[in-house]
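Supplementary notes (optional reading)

For those who missed the lab, this is the record we used. Protein: Sodium/proline symporter. Length: 492 residues.
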Amino acid sequence: METGMIISLAAYFIVMLGIGLYAYKQSTSDVSGYMLGGRSLSPGVAALSAGASDMSGWILMGLPGAMFVTGFSSTWIALGLIIGAWLNYFLVAPRLRVYTEKANDSITIPDYFSNRFNDNSNLLRVVSAVVIIVFFTLYTSSGVVAGGKLFESSFGLSYEMGLYITTGVVVLYTLFGGFLAVSLTDFVQGCIMFIALILVPTVTYTLLEQPLTSTLNSINPQMLQWIGAGSLVSIISAMAWGLGYFGQPHIIVRFMSVRSVKDMPTARRIGMSWMIVAALGAVATGLCGAAYAYENGIVVDDPETIFLVLSELLFHPLIAGFLLAAILAAIMSTISSQLLVSSSSLTEDFYKTFIRRDATDKELVLVGRISVALVAICAIYLAYDRDSSILDLVSNAWAGFGAAFGPLVLFSLYWKRMNFEGALAGMVVGAVTVLVWFYAPIEVNGEHISKLIYGIVPGFILSSIAIVAVSLTTAAPSEKITLLFDDVEKSL
């Protein structure tokens, strides 16, 4: 590896660990500070933290890889995500910030569900925590896979060593710095990703010998088709990724941490500007990368590494090291967020609820740190499958959260008549539908149902129907719940 690349990456690792040390000294003395940063994030930090934790390794590897293979038909994924993210900021962010504080200062999503519906049985808390831990372990493994591929492809290390290095650094700063460390590192990582996703496609485009569309047509005329080899259903499936935003715990928890609901418009403007540039940059990287590789006879064995290939071929080692750091930033920002949310659920929703109700803050922070390490170990185990597709792993987990929590979050914030039974039914129906859709051996005309339409579509629809039907056919929510709803409405 070139000395310049080593210097850039070493500087990046030092900065990340330094932020973790700073956050350790600032905010980890109590459980609220460790899990939610004391609800004190500025809109800029919260917005870039949400964006960086959302746009994981798939924005620099998974999506460019899909564009590299299929062409314009994968652009619908980016468009759906942009629309979904904007709606998330507009519909969910302000209300969730107010509701979680008024609902007994809820600091986790399961905590919010439990307090929102006055669930004395803790059933909502447990089921939602199980959903979080199951899907986040799968989701986290996608980031670990991306790290393994990065170190194997660029640094000549073994895939397994890449898994350990990636996870090890993330665990260190998450373990000690908690939510503040995750948010501050996300901010820095978001800035790095922003620059990289402008620089790589721009330079690649300027080096093309022929017009981009001409070269893509020479590779395969199908790459210029917006619908691709499928149909209108394929467009719906791609854009349905946007539905997932409403139910992603590692993203919406950022809304809960903003210092004031008045900061939400600023956070939305910053977050959406960042995301639009990042998504377009990822799309352009895949398309321009495919054209450049074709024109120069470059064989790309794994399409999901096209960003890596371009970084090493086109840039000075110092800059290439910075660009590779951008991939690490994308990977680590999401892994750290997911580890912390999973840790929060294990700590607040299992340990404190069922094992030690009177646990001190110091004890809960310790349990949270142990939980971070345990989830990381499970993610590494799942990532040992070298052939895992980053985009496939992300799509399954994204659909699971979107269907299980998306309708539940939206209805809980806007529909006063929704009750505990409806919430539980919607969550279970959404999660089970996605699991069946992806993993049950069901085929239609010789093709697995997951290939026909993205699993979040039936999951989201059936979850919404379950919430409405069960809520209307069971007892109305208690006066305490409706008064809390009214209080939130007056505060907005």
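If you only remember one thing from this example: The chain has one domain: 3-386.
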